[in-house]
Amino acid sequence: MRWQTMKAACWAVLAAVALICAGAAAAAPPPVADFFDAPVMTRPVLSPNGQHLAVLLASAEGRRQLAVMDLAPPRQLRVVAGFNDADVRDVHWVNDNRLVFTIDDLQSAWADQWSPGLFAVDRRGEGEAASMRMLIARDRGFVQRGRADSPTLPAYFRFARVLRDGSDDVLVEVTRRSGSNNGVASSAFLRQNTRTGRTLPVDLGHPPVDANLIFDAQGRARLATTVSGNETRWYGRLTPDADWREVLKQPVFGGTAHMVQWVALGLDDRIYVTAPRPGDIDGTNALYRLDPATGQLESAPLLVLQGFDFQGAPIFDGSSRQFVGVRYLADSTGTAWLQPELQAAQTRLDQRLPGLVNLIDRAECGCSPWAVVTSFSDRQPPVHWLLDEKSGQLEPLGRARPRIDARQMAAREFTRLAARDGLGLPVYITHPPATPPQGTAGPSGPRPLVVLVHGGPFLRGGAWQWTAESQFLASRGYLVVEPEFRGSTGYGWKLFRAGWKQWGLKMQDDLADVVRWAVDRGLADPKRVCIVGGSYGGYAALMGLVRDPELYRCGVAYAAVTDIELMYQLTQSDLSSYSLAHGLPTLVGDRQADAEQLQATSPLQQAARIRAPLLLAFGGKDRRVPLEHGTRLREALAKTNDKLEYVVYPDEGHGFFKPANRHDFWGRVDRFLARELAAP
Asked: Which of 279, 418, 607, 651 is deepest in the core (most CB within 10 A)?
């Protein structure tokens, strides 16, 4: 890891931002790199007093660097931390002068395998006292930057949270896991000074069990959660000085509704959670508050999102410590403000920037005129602004993807439809431009269709926003549908629970039902449909070719699970012992009781039925879906399928991290689809 110079500012504030406008002339589709290069600007965040701004910027080599700008004139962004072989990741203000950050190598196959470490730097990034200091090692091969006598914690520690107590200290955590199939065994916490690196023990108030602890803003342990077998128990100090007490217990798997889940410990000393909403037909979670006197949920939810589980966080005013709003994700991200003046400010901003989602982030102190605004839409990648709330002046900071012209992008739609058994399926549809780019498909009407299947599978797939994969495919003239098939999360317990043990069965039927829905409505050409996905999505692409060969003309599967049994067998996989003992048997299938089903829904075991053209890609260092999944399927397909295109990226993991590999893979997808979905 090599430290880059930080003397000169490398970015100027942009003078203008191109937003959505109609009537773009037909043009050649943007190149692959415009979609899949690293974003130029991400994650702007104000200091606690609102006088300084931190932001991540891409270097010329595509590496994320930390830059800081003082908002008092003369404004200039200056890089204060950066590496030419690693990327700055999560950034937190310790106080108004000091920042901490973690790092990662987003161009490495091992991006998700290393400790993120922890580093600290002053906002000015100048002088010996402000020089970058390693607080937690990333691994033993990394050399500490800073004074030789400063302690550095080993890589198995991790950053826990900043403290708002006027110090330069942060909380760090070490988690000790037992050798059993239980969850977290115990956690220990230290208070670490970001200038000296030295640590002090933290008084935890004697929680009743060894557990995973959650702290309030002042660094006081307030919640403890522990997992034993298939049961989670919560203990809490419902006020800062109260004794520990059991709050609730619930099953991890196999219950009849969503679990209660912690969301935040508010500045108002209240505990915010998500919990099932009684009587809701979809079984969705809502945002609730725990009554500190009883440990029970308050009777009325704070926020209900019809048809969606609550995902998001409450917003607090730092000066009054009041709960003032909620940031949430429904079909898109939004903000519900509780105070009239804050809602009025949101309305004024939305009127100035119509057609966009406009997110306002204010300084913690509640005392600064400055706010950061992030605007985006289905066609427009994020644009960052600086808003002076006193004068109303709105200044552009920069764009995440300045090479993307929103006028060339495709419209994205959210809808719901019924599966064959009546279950409601959320679906995102990206419509190619009415006037296709030069050299692509013909006029409006039924389009060649790409079914883009999300991974997981037990997570949420999409949202109404700009996404690289769907926009790339739409720019080539394809209609893109992204089903939130049963098993997906974020849309209620009913949809999630319906996917248990349905790999290759009803989960697969949902994808076919969405295709037939698009064909019946004249959106898609039934003779030109391809199924595409990675990880579980790659598994679904393979099983689509097995189960519905008349529906799909071709398939693309990358980092794909090719045999469910291999997930249990491969010792080099990074699946935890807890997942193998509890998660997979419950959600996917039991190796003994469901052995016949697992074989019938294995692409490897059914390889002779895969006859359609197939693009298959794997990473040579993938630990989630090891390469053996690919090599075994390739050997099986060699006997029956002469339309296989197979590629291995030796230096990649679970996904394609290196820009050159991303460009190569999606270039292959482009050529493969153009060939296989060409008009008859």
From this structure: 607
Give φ, ψ of 307 to 5 degrees.
85, 0
Q: Taking Cα atoms as reference points, which of 575, 574, 584, 563 lies closest to residue 628?
A: 563
pLDDT of residue 186: 61
DSSP, residue by residue, 572-627: TS---HHIIIIIHHHHT--TTTTHHHHHHT-TTTTGGG--S-EEEEEETT-SSS-T
Band (pLDDT 50/70/90 cuts) for residue 486 is very high
Distance separating alpha carbons of residues 546 and 602, to the nearest angstrom: 9
Dihedral sign for Cα atoms in the order 260, 265, 268, 270: positive
The 10s digit of each residue's pLDDT in 570-627 is 656 666 676 777 778 889 988 889 999 999 999 999 999 999 999 999 999 888 899 9
Q: How far apart are CA 120 and CA 238, in angstroms?
A: 33
Q: Which amino acid is at 474?
A: A
pLDDT-derived band at 19 (thresholds 50, 70, 90) equals very low
Alpha helices per DSSP H over 330-485: 340-352, 468-475
Residue ranges per structural domain of the chain: 410-676
CA-CA distance, 192 to 159, in Å (whole number)?
10
CA distance 384 to 400: 8
**Are 93 and 162 within 8 A, CB to CB?**
yes
What is the percent of the chain with per-residue pLDDT over 70, rounded to a whole number?
88
- Find residue 242's DSSP bridge partners: none
From the CA atom positions of the chain, what is the Rg in Å? 26
Question: What's the CATH code, domain 410-676?
Answer: 3.40.50.1820
Q: Which of 57, 494, 525 is nearest to 307 (CA)?
A: 494
Question: What kind and span of H or E run contains 508?
Answer: helix 506-520
- 619-654 b/e (C-beta count within 10 Å ≥ 16 → b): bebbbbbbbbbbebbbebbeeebeebeeeebeebbb
3-state secondary structure of 55: strand
360 vs 343: CA distance, rounded Å: 11
pLDDT of residue 35 exceeding 80, the answer is: yes
pLDDT at 160 over 70: yes
